[in-house]
């Protein structure tokens, strides 16, 4: 059973320092684009797997070991991350 | 060091048995999965061993069930730290399936319906150490636990016991599987606590 | 702006329980003081980590139930039968106890008081929690954005925040799946339970099946998929 991308954003934020839920990820498998928040996340396992909501291909995987985060984004053709406008405050 | 929460012990049994390091006893059977549960039609189900020369040895569901089966009772150890003791399985020993397979390869890459993979040395699949299991505790193996059939290699962490198994490729060169590519140990011996790549 | 950009590492922070209050027989709100909490937007989550004396730890993600009050935050947690974390949070935790939190997390399922609306909130069970944060943020900010809430529970006794919702100046429709009322037989949510709300931004939160059902109803009613934001929670929790 999967959950929304929202529910597993913590481990990505820890590794990347950005909130990935608002990022638009384009699936390398089927070409569909969608917010990470709307991907299907499987978080009951050795790591966290985010799958395309359209075709269920793996978009992103992350494993948190005691010392490192291992990230695989091969399933994403692109990851578009909204950033604050230049010169704006760093949060919100 | 983390802050200890007063009175929190987790839902664990006290370690009454000699468990591998860092493991905790559980009585239920957690369902771990990295994707949707494949629904495999038994009429089209296949299990294939492919050797390093590309020769294929394939069994249908009917052919698998016609092979002599074994019952085994074993402890299983998940890298997410739960262990379950005395689980009973029924399936076909890989020794039986490999009986006519010609190979000089050292490595195996196991494939599942749904795309999951895991690698291990071929010798860890032989000599009574591994099965294609299709019954658990006397019942048909349910889809959430890997049915119709899963690999059972209980002497390694349970991510090696691939659910929904469909193919084993024999390789001259080792090729890391789904979790082995991403920080998990290439071999995964629970008694040596080989959880992560550098353990 | 319609989404929250968060660019910051999210470390674990020590939290101390300020108070707890019951919402239903199996759910309660936990008020935490979290020194260093950076603030959050309605709809966001926090991860909670519990650690046992021998170092064993378990973590779960919970929605924040209210706007931040400085470094004070609120989570509402529903008991998951046979769960590992929720029974501790619902039945054991007392004021002055400590745990760790990390957040805020998630910038997509969020609502900002600067948005004019209209907004339709659709909650299934404990899916009300992040939506309640939006209702409270609207009140806190003095927003006049038109809000409508449809809230599905098994029966009246299972509803969180009932008095507060009854007093709020938003149109609330209760849907009971197991209790018949004068105006509605017991049963799962249907198209008839959803207001027209043309052009509204819609937030749907609940169990996976509920979210799928409501999304299908909204799309069939002509809502634009781009205006529907969903948050599913699996049977994971615990």
UniProtKB/TrEMBL annotation, chain A:
InterPro entries hit by this protein: DUF6510
Protein name: Uncharacterized protein
UniProtKB/TrEMBL annotation, chain B:
InterPro entries assigned to the protein according to its UniProt record, in alphabetical order: OxRdtase_Mopterin-bd_dom, OxRdtase_Mopterin-bd_sf
Any Pfam family: Oxidored_molyb
Annotated transmembrane regions: none
Record domain Oxidoreductase molybdopterin-binding: where: 35-179
Domain of life: Bacteria
Region of interest: Disordered: 1-21
Record's protein name: DMSO/TMAO reductase YedYZ molybdopterin-dependent catalytic subunit
Organism this protein belongs to: Actinophytocola algeriensis
Lineage start: Bacteria, Bacillati, Actinomycetota, Actinomycetes, Pseudonocardiales
UniProtKB/TrEMBL annotation, chain C:
Gene3D superfamilies given in the database record: Nucleotide-binding domain of ferredoxin-NADP reductase (FNR) module, Translation factors
Residue ranges constituting the FAD-binding FR-type domain according to the UniProt record: 10-111
Gene Ontology molecular function: 2 iron, 2 sulfur cluster binding; oxidoreductase activity
SUPFAM superfamilies, per the entry: Ferredoxin reductase-like, C-terminal NADP-linked domain (SSF52343), Riboflavin synthase domain-like (SSF63380)
Keywords in alphabetical order: 2Fe-2S, Iron, Iron-sulfur, Metal-binding
InterPro entries on file: Cbr1-like_FAD-bd_dom, FAD-bd_FR_type, Flavoprot_Pyr_Nucl_cyt_Rdtase, FNR_nucleotide-bd, MRET, OxRdtase_FAD/NAD-bd, Riboflavin_synthase-like_b-brl
Transmembrane intervals: none
Record CDD domains: FNR_iron_sulfur_binding_3
Cofactor(s) for this UniProt protein: FAD
Pfam families, A to Z: FAD_binding_6 (PF00970), NAD_binding_1 (PF00175)
Domain of life per record: Bacteria
The protein, known as: Ferredoxin-NADP reductase
Taxonomic classification: Bacteria, Bacillati, Actinomycetota, Actinomycetes, Pseudonocardiales
């Amino acid at each position: 059973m999967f959950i929304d991308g929202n529910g597993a954003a913590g481990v990505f934020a820890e590794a990347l320092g950005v909130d990935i839920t608002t990022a638009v990820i384009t699936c390398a498998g089927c070409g569909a684009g969608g917010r990470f928040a709307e991907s299907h996340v499987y978080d009951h396992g050795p790591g966290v797997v985010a799958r395309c909501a359209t075709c269920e291909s793996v978009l992103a995987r992350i494993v948190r070991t005691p010392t490192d985060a291992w990230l695989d984004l091969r399933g994403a053709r692109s990851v578009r991350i909204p950033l604050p406008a230049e010169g704006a405050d760093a949060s919100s | 060091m983390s802050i200890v929460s007063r009175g929190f012990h987790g839902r664990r049994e006290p370690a009454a048995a000699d468990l591998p390091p860092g493991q905790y006893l559980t009585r239920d059977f957690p369902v771990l999965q990295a994707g949707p549960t494949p629904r495999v039609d038994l009429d089209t189900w296949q299990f294939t061993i492919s050797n390093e020369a590309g020769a294929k040895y394939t069994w249908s569901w009917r052919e698998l069930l016609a092979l002599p089966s074994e019952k085994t009772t074993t402890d299983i150890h998940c890298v997410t730290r739960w262990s379950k003791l005395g689980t009973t399985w029924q399936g076909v020993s890989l020794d039986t399936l490999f009986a006519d397979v010609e190979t000089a390869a050292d490595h195996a890459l196991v494939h599942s319906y749904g795309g999951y993979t895991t690698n291990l040395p071929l010798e860890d699949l032989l000599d009574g150490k591994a099965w294609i299991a299709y019954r658990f505790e006397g019942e048909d193996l349910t889809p959430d636990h890997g049915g119709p059939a899963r690999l059972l290699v209980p002497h390694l962490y349970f991510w090696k016991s691939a659910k929904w198994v469909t193919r084993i490729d024999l390789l001259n060169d080792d090729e890391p599987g789904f979790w082995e590519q991403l920080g998990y140990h290439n071999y995964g011996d629970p008694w040596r606590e080989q959880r992560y790549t550098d353990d | 702006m319609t989404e929250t950009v968060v660019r910051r590492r999210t470390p674990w922070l020590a939290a101390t329980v300020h108070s707890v209050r019951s919402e239903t027989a199996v759910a309660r709100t936990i008020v935490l003081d979290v020194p260093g909490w950076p603030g959050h937007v309605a709809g966001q989550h926090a991860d909670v980590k519990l650690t046992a004396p021998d170092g064993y730890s378990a973590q779960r993600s919970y929605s924040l139930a209210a706007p931040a009050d400085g470094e004070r935050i609120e989570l509402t947690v529903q008991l998951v039968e046979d769960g590992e974390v929720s029974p501790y949070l619902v039945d054991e935790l007392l004021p002055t106890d400590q745990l760790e939190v990390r957040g805020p997390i998630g910038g997509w399922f969020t609502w900002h008081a600067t948005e004019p609306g209209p907004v339709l909130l659709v909650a299934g069970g404990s899916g009300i929690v992040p939506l309640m944060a939006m209702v409270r943020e609207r009140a806190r900010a003095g927003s006049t954005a038109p809000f409508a809430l449809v809230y599905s529970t098994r029966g009246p006794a299972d509803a969180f925040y009932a008095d507060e919702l009854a007093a709020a100046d938003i149109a609330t429709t209760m849907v009971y799946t197991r209790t018949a009322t004068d105006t509605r037989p017991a049963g799962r949510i249907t198209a008839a339970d959803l207001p027209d709300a043309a052009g509204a931004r819609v937030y749907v939160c609940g169990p996976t099946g509920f979210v799928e059902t409501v999304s299908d109803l909204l799309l069939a009613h002509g809502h634009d998929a781009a205006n529907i934001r969903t948050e599913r929670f699996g049977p994971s929790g615990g």
